[in-house]
Amino acid sequence: MAETKSAMRKPVFTKVDQLRPGTNGHNLVVKVVSSKMVLQKGRPDGPQVRQMRIAECLVGDETGTILFTARNEQVEMMKADATVILRNAKIDMFKGSMRLAVDKWGRVEVTEPASFTVKEDNNLSLVEYELVNVVEE
């Protein structure tokens, strides 16, 4: 087991402006600019009723901002001005625009406040993409 531990790769952190549609496996350190609850409903599955919560959070670093879709327990961590580490994040396309999300294979960790200021005038979620399939002959 010790041999596999040493073989683990160090995480490579990317910046917000390097994110592209349809990619995954991103590690980012971002600040939460704002957080807004968009869905909160009870889901009856079994003896206990589970709450399903979804919040849209504007997150960013010194290169730009992007909308992050926080689900369930991630919602509590995404408070305004908090600095979080997103591990194994992926880009989801929603109505032609990019959204950042972390599924069950990734992690959201609150960390100590970062020293950078968020560049709010470069919002990648406002860029609309049209995905086109190219057929090579």
From TrEMBL:
It holds the Pfam family OB_Ssb-like. Residues 19-110 form the Single-stranded DNA binding protein Ssb-like OB fold domain. It comes from the Eukaryota. SUPFAM superfamilies: Nucleic acid-binding proteins. This is Single-stranded DNA binding protein Ssb-like OB fold domain-containing protein. It comes from Penstemon smallii.
